[in-house]
Amino acid sequence: MSGDERIPVMVPLLGREEADAAAEAVLSGWVAQGPRVARFEREFAASIGAAHGVATSSCTSALHLALVACGIGASDEVIVPSLSFIATANAVRYVGAVPVFADVDEHTANLTPDSVAAVLTPRTRAVLAVHQGGVPADVAGLRALCSMLGLALIEDAACAAGSTYRGAPVGRGAQVAAWSFHPRKLITTGEGGMLTLDDEDRAVRLRRLREHGMSVSAADRHATAGPVFESYLETGFNYRMTDIQAAVGLVQLGRLGALVRRRRELAARYHDLLADLPGLRAVRDPDYGQTNYQSFWVLLEESAPGRRDDLLTRLAEAGISARRGIMAAHLEPAYAEHGHAPLPVTERLTRDSLILPLFHGLTEAQQDRVVAVLRKAVG
Fold this sequence. Notes:
The protein has 2 domains: 16-253, Type I PLP-dependent aspartate aminotransferase-like (Major domain) (Aspartate Aminotransferase, domain 2, 3-Layer(aba) Sandwich), CATH 3.40.640.10; 255-378, Aspartate Aminotransferase, domain 1. The protein contains 12 helices and 14 strands. It is globular and about 75 Å long. The strands form 3 sheets. A 7-stranded mixed beta sheet has the order 1-9-8-5-4-2-3, with helices on both faces. A 4-stranded antiparallel beta sheet has the order 10-12-14-13. By secondary structure, it is α/β, with parallel strands linked by helices. α1 (16-28) runs antiparallel to α9 and α3 packs across α4 (87-94).
């Protein structure tokens, strides 16, 4: 890419190995959920330190299944951050439950035990905590609070593959964690998701739920010589991943360590270049963990000249793709009539933050172009 070409906000790292793996799956004749999905589940779960992986069609479907498996239903309340992609709150509505929006920490953009406690009611049945943008949430306190109150804790780790919490991979020890393999994430299968957990009985049920509630999976039927008569034990869904996707995912999983290292190198360079620029505060590691820098966002301080939207416009005019900061679901039309407690931190973060280009192939010259526009706008 030349210095005059547009700088994208994100480009997935995909190459010949992924293409060959997908082609091999196609030529094998097994393109639906099958042996490659099972292997991807095992290897991804092992990378987290979880006993079980359950691949799905998306992280949204994974969140839906997690809520079903945790027994969340009509009129139950589930505490969620509004500061998250809207799928987090939508999944709660899928099971007929009510999302209750809690505010977040300004530095990590994540729920805290105090922000959760502030919106607890007798109808609260679960907490859906997000590791936002790859920044690990401080889940020890959340797990302790939920355990004390008998609440389910589902971790939305959509962005967090490769992030760490207290020296271990994010998601280790989670009651259930949901992951995304969308192209904006570090590793991708095009679309796709995963659930990781340690509870074997729940994992068995989740696999059944993602495949129409069938008592015998398609792969198991195929492996059996004689006739198989499956039954449908409960209302299920069609949330399966394909073997083509899993083939790509297995190659991508092998790249994860290198992807995280490269993003952290680029993020460190952003920090150095922006260190003396007043009016901007960049996302950083929390004291208790490391982010994979799935997104590199900056927050405009109250003292900064101009507005976030003006800065996005100036970046776009300079051929640089940036994005508004993390959305706030409670400000979207779909939730216009949805009551909520005051969310001052959420509203400040979504109003005054933006996401800068960060991807494996980003060059120093491209970073310099991004920073030059920032300096001219707010320096």
